[in-house]
From TrEMBL:
Keywords: Membrane, Methylation, Transmembrane, Transmembrane helix
Location relative to the cell: Membrane
Gene Ontology CC entries for this record: membrane; type II protein secretion system complex
Official protein name in the record: Type II secretion system protein GspH
Originating species: Aliidiomarina sanyensis
Membrane-related topology note: Single-pass membrane protein
Predominant location category: membrane
GO BP term, pick one: protein secretion by the type II secretion system
Lineage top rank: taxon: Bacteria
Regions crossing the membrane: 12-35
């Protein structure tokens, strides 16, 4: 004898209320993900910009020792460019990782030159160093590069500090202090 309800289960679909409830839950979960996700792409933070600069400096210092080259770094408002001294002129480096680097729009960038006493004692002035004399200025070419930082064959460099600050609330500021001319001290700060 067969029980009347044992195998007579009929499959039925979802009700309209159940479907609306599932859609509402999925909508809330999607809204939470969108609201909590970062507003900028990876690599656009002060931390990332400082890390990239440190890696580039490490590379240029290695190359200075290994190849016995002198390198220069020219800082501008929102980018910095690497040069190599060759044939009595500065030549821009166009091979990665030392290509000209633009700091992301979400990061404020400040450069401060440190003390370099050997330049203070020169009678001709700093513009006579590495071919930046009257011969260069009278040429018809564009202005020659004027690196503020020199990295010597010993891997020592002209002392400087650079600061990378996030421009959004809650972002950190990374200060790379190379005023020793030998190594960098990395600090996280709120104020310069």
């Amino acid at each position: 004898m067969k029980h009347p309800r044992s195998f007579e289960w009929q499959s039925r679909g979802f009700t309209l209320i159940e479907l609306m409830l599932v859609i509402a839950i999925l909508g809330l979960a999607a809204m939470y993900v969108v609201i909590t996700s970062p507003t900028r792409a990876p690599g656009n933070t002060a931390e990332d910009a400082a890390r990239k600069f440190l890696l580039q400096m490490h590379h240029v210092r290695e190359q200075a020792i290994l190849r016995n080259y002198v390198y220069g770094i020219e800082f501008d408002d929102d980018y910095y460019t690497f040069y190599r001294w060759r044939d009595e002129a500065w030549h821009e480096i166009v091979a990665p990782p030392l290509v000209a680097t633009r700091v992301p729009d979400t990061v404020e960038f400040e450069f401060e030159l440190g003390d370099f006493r050997i330049l203070d004692n020169m009678t001709e002035g700093r513009d006579a160093i590495f071919g930046r004399d009257a011969r260069r200025e009278s040429s018809d070419d564009d202005d020659p590069p004027r690196p503020q930082i020199l990295v010597f064959e010993s891997s020592e460099f002209i002392p400087f500090r650079v600061r990378f600050s996030g421009m959004e609330p809650g972002d950190i500021t990374i200060l790379l202090d190379g005023r020793s001319g030998i190594d960098f001290v990395r600090e996280e700060r709120d104020v310069w």
